[in-house]
Specification:
Structural class: alpha/beta
Shape: globular
Order of helices and strands: HHHHHEHEHEHEHEEEHEEH
Strand order of the largest sheet: 1-9-8-2-5-3-4
Largest sheet: 7 strands, mixed
Strand content: 15-25%
Radius of gyration: 20 Å
Number of helices: 11
Helix content: 40-55%
Length: about 325
């Protein structure tokens, strides 16, 4: 629930700065037959799950997730490989159990995502509550915008959706899907509460403008980056090419940083959107300042992944990009 002294924004407030329309480098792709079939299947699943009672929808989501675990061997291979890298001391049975629970978490996430267009304030509070909201409030009160660091952890879709619904619209980075019909469908669900997507190829300009207008920008910090787009810092015991975007933005704009993660609380049967402040580590050298702060962001996230390993996206090839001279890490 919202804390006293930090009132919701009025519904008619302009939440995104006007920016010039970019001219696309090439005309948009026309949807193919395959695109149409994928869209129809996804739309049907979301519609059905969205109209089921929440408990029933989550049960169906768990079934779908379980089937995905067994019938999507490529994802299972990547997930088990990553878990072996990070937890080599675990027996194989424990790694399989954690990965299966991670799939179950994504099934619950899918069920909740399907309900987004129907969620109002009361229904959202039944699904997710704030934990440490005063840290976000303190950052917001500085008037420099807020850099909202998050990850593919817990229910990352619900965290941005709920935060916007509570009155604090969030611009969040996305990479458009190859299927334009599916991309439009997912975007409609994601933005139903007032959040705004920022395309990856237009991130720097749009994010800078949003922060200058005092808005919040959400950035996923746990995805593999090309060597030209990130810096190699430790993550879960191995060098990982990590985005420098949040550190560069913070250094340029002076915007405060907070870590925001939606953790599943099995005892309460709902999520907790936990906020933690992140201290900026100053250095004389600009490149070193970017590096040490990016490493610190990874450390903060890593502590949660080690504590709640079944809530992270293990099926992503997080360490695919290797430092110069190192051989590929993944054998597939």
């Amino acid at each position: 629930m919202l804390r006293a002294g930090f009132e919701p924004m009025s519904a008619d407030r302009q939440i995104w700065p006007a920016v010039p329309t970019r001219v696309p480098a090439s005309p948009p792709r026309q949807p193919s037959l395959r695109h149409g079939l994928e869209y129809a299947a996804a739309a049907a699943v979301l519609k059905i799950l969205g109209w089921l009672p929440r408990g029933a929808a989550r049960a169906v989501g768990r079934v779908l997730a379980g089937l995905s675990y067994w019938f999507w061997p490529r994802l299972r291979r990547v997930g088990l490989f990553n878990l072996a890298l990070v937890f080599p001391e675990w027996p194989a049975r424990r790694r399989r159990r954690v990965l299966f629970r991670a799939f179950q978490n994504w099934g619950r996430m899918l069920a909740d995502f399907a309900r987004f267009p129907r969620l109002d304030r009361a229904r959202i509070e039944e699904m997710i509550t704030y934990d440490g909201f005063e840290h976000y409030a303190r950052a917001h009160a500085q008037g420099k915008g807020v850099i909202f660091l998050t990850a593919h952890f817990g229910n990352w879709e619900l965290s941005s959706f709920a935060h916007s619904a509570y009155g604090y619209p969030l611009g969040f980075t996305v990479r458009g899907l190859d299927n334009p019909l599916l991309d439009a469908l997912i975007t409609r669900y994601r933005t139903a509460s007032g959040g705004r997507p920022i395309e990856k190829n237009d991130f720097a300009r749009r994010a800078w403008r949003a922060l200058k207008d005092g808005e919040a920008v959400g950035i996923l910090i746990d995805t593999n980056m090309a060597a030209s787009e990130g810096v190699f810092v430790d993550f879960l015991g191995r060098a990982a090419c990590t985005t420098t975007a949040p550190a560069r933005l913070a250094r340029k704009t002076g915007a405060p940083l907070v870590l925001g993660l939606a953790l599943w609380d099995s005892r309460a049967g709902r999520y907790r959107l936990r906020f933690e402040p992140i201290e900026w580590l100053s250095r004389d050298d600009a490149a070193e300042e970017i590096r040490v702060n990016t490493a610190n962001f990874n450390r903060r996230l890593e502590s949660y992944i080690r504590q709640y390993p079944d809530q992270w996206l293990w099926v992503h090839r997080r360490w695919k990009t290797r430092p110069p001279g190192e051989p590929p890490l993944y054998p597939f």
